[in-house]
Write a structure and sequence with these properties.
homodimer; mainly alpha; Arc Repressor Mutant, subunit A; Diphtheria Toxin Repressor, domain 2; 8 helices; 2 strands; DNA-binding
Chain lengths: ~160, ~160
DNA sequence: TCTCAATGTGTTTAGCTGAGAACTTTTCTA
DNA sequence: TAGAAAAGTTCTCAGCTAAACACATTGAGA
């Protein structure tokens, strides 16, 4: 009886530990939505020097309360420094991620243009896939695109075949 | 006063209509997870002639109750015919989607192999992006891959440059 | 200084995905 | 063929993401 009871206790403890673990690991989750926010913020800063919640709300097509919530989260996770009513500033960590994703975006667009996808469709696809490409894969793609560009005759013959 | 009251009523009616609309449109949502299930099911059927909940559970890395739930959903939305304890059968609609996604998967793998992404990384990326590629983009990519394959010397010079 | 637009907060809603426990059905085997 | 084992199902619940509404607060310009 005593041992059975101990087993039960042990199971409970395990469950408790597991939920604590989950609760903590949650902190580290970085979602594609967060990535999108960082991308938009970085572009706004480049465009007009700052990024107001209202601007972000417009570009992300979400309501201002959602923006505030996300800004607090991005701040808590160290991607930017956000002081209410005072504006925000990307940290090194946030800047790095924003640059990464913007680089991916433009590299992918580049490639899609080369293979003849019209820019409207290309943009749509890129937004979907840019969050799922490993750095290694992007590196290869970049190499390949560079190679293609350095051999314009190849592209010309593809374009001819592609009529 | 009467008019104000009318406006309120009108707003309420609008909201009611909107929620009805949402309730109905919900039916049409098709998620990437559903697409994954269809893909796995289709592959299992090809492999061993049928797809049991346990098999699906293994391949999807989820517990059986989750599988049952998804099967009921896929049935309700017309992607397959599912009779409990009796097995399932993809409908034309479900087959078409499964084929589409499997085609995308292999075309993307094909391309990644050509540009020199190792198959482990390639597989991982493909799983992420296959759900986000438009048919038009895939068509162009397919054309491009075919073009490359029909000009092996191009690939050779890329491989040389890529050492 | 007062007002109004912008911004922030707390709370609620909605959806997706998944899991555990307990039960039912089917299958296997002794 | 009975009865145990395996497979499948149902019910209930939880975690997470995302967004909206209602309301409170702030601050900049008339």
């Amino acid at each position: 009886m005593a041992s059975k009871s101990n087993i039960k206790t042990s199971n409970k403890k395990e469950k408790r530990l597991e939920s604590i673990k989950k609760a903590h690991s949650k902190k580290n989750t970085f979602t594609t939505t967060m990535e999108d926010y960082l991308e938009v913020i970085s572009e706004l800063v480049e465009l007009k020097g700052y990024a107001s919640p209202t601007d972000i709300s417009n570009y992300m097509n979400v309501r201002p309360p959602s923006v505030t919530k996300m800004l607090r989260r991005l701040d808590a996770d160290g991607y930017l420094k956000y002081t209410k009513y005072q504006g925000l500033k990307l940290t090194a960590k946030g800047t790095s991620i924003a640059n990464d994703i913007r680089q991916k975006h433009s590299d992918l667009l580049d490639f899609f243009e080369i293979i003849g996808v019209d820019s409207s469709a290309a943009n749509k696809d890129v937004e979907g896939i840019e969050h799922h490409m490993n750095p290694k894969t992007m590196k290869q793609l970049r190499k390949f695109t560079t190679f293609l560009k350095s051999n314009p005759n190849l592209l010309l013959s593809f374009d001819r075949a592609n009529l």
